[in-house]
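An instance as discussed:

___
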Amino acid sequence: MRISLITAIMLVSSAANAQQQPSIQVPVPNIPGITTPSQPQQRPYYPPAFIISGILLIIAAIMVLFVGAGGRIHQREIVATSPL
């Protein structure tokens, strides 16, 4: 079963390749700076961005540790009493 399935897939793909439509080629004028780069592109320098994002991540993690740290003030319970 496995060999016949692979054979069938190969036959279908070869039949599809035989019936391909011809592609249309559109000529594009060579305009320096628009269709072709005017100078070789330089690779961007990322390390400072990674360092800054790492520092911000560490600061955010430290801030998360202090969420709710100041809200643990125990207040006295006030019981409402009515005079008899």
The CA atoms of residues 37 and 43 lie 14 Å apart. The chain has two helices and no strands. The helical segments are 2-18, 47-65. The first helix runs from residue 2 to 18.
